[in-house]
Amino acid sequence: MSLRIIFMGTPEFSVPTLAALAGAGHQIVAVYTQPPRPGGRRGLDLQKSPVHQAAELLGIPILTPVNFKDEADRQTFREFDADVAVVVAYGLLLPEAILTGTRLGCYNGHASLLPRWRGAAPIQRAIMAGDHETGMMVMKMDKGLDTGPVALTKAVQIGETMTSGELHDKLMQVGATLMKEAIGKLEADDLPLTEQAEEGVVYAAKISKAETRIDFAKTAREVHDHIRGLSPFPGAWFELEIAGKPERVKVLNSERVAAEGSAGTVLDDILTIACGEGAVRPTRLQRAGGKALGLADFLRGTPVAAGTRVG
Fold this sequence. Notes:
Number of strands: 16
Strand content: 25-35%
Largest sheet: 7 strands, mixed
CATH superfamily of the largest domain: Formyl transferase, N-terminal domain
Distance between the termini: 60 Å
Low-confidence stretches: none
Mean pLDDT: 97
Strand order of the largest sheet: 5-2-1-6-7-9-10
Shape: elongated
Helix content: 25-40%
C-alpha cells in the first residue's frame, strides 16, 4: 500500500525527488512550495517556483503559505491526513505543529554529511572549505536546524575543479534516489534512525554579498576553492579598471598556477593573478551585463596587461 505524502520544496534541486516519489506510485496528496515571486526583466511578472511548475504538470494540489503562523494553514496541513511529509529545500523553518502533523513525521533530504554543514548553504560551503567529500542524507526532522536522526546516507566525492553548480546537479539526483529508497523502507517499517554525532558540527551560513569579492591575499588554493564554490551563483568577482572605470568581473572557473608575486597583481598577458601564496588564472569570466567567456575570448575583447592590479 502506497504512502500518502505531502511534499515540501521550492527550487530546481527539489524537483527530481518529487518526480521520483510520484513515479514510485506513492500518493502525493499536496505540494507545499514558496509563493510566486516578482521576476522577469522588470520584476513585474510573478514567477512560480520550479516545484510549483512541476506539481502543476503532475496535477497535484499546490499550497503556498508565507509561513505557518496562521492556525488555518496548520489545520489545512493536518486535514490532508498524510502519512509523511518529505521536505527538500523548502525554504522555511517548520513549526512543531507541522513536524508532528503527519502520522510518521517529516523527512528531510539534506545536501551534506551531517553534522558537518548544517544550514542554508551546504553545497557552496563544502567547496569553499576545500572539502573532498560531501553527500546526501535523509533525516527525520526535529525542532533544531538539521539536527534530527539520520536514516540514510550517500557520500559523493568533490573533484578538484568541481563547481557548486556541478555538485548541485549531482546531489539533486543522488538525493532523489536516496529519498525514494528511504520512503520505500519507511513504508515497509524498515527505516532505522541513528542520532547525529555531537562532534564535528559546522554551520553552513547563507552566502552574504560581502563574501563574494575575491581576496587575493589568501592562498591560491583558497582563492580557487572560493571561486568554484560560488560558481555559477552568486559568482565570485574582482574589480578591474576597464576604459578608465572600475568594473566587476565574475570568475566562474579558475586554475592554480605555480607562480609568485604581489597579491592582486597580474603577472603576465594571460591573466595569471598572484595570491598571498601561489597564483590563480581565471579560465571563464563574465563582465557585468555580458555573457560568460573563456579566457582567450575575454582577453580578446578586454586585454589586461601584466602589472595591472585587481581586487
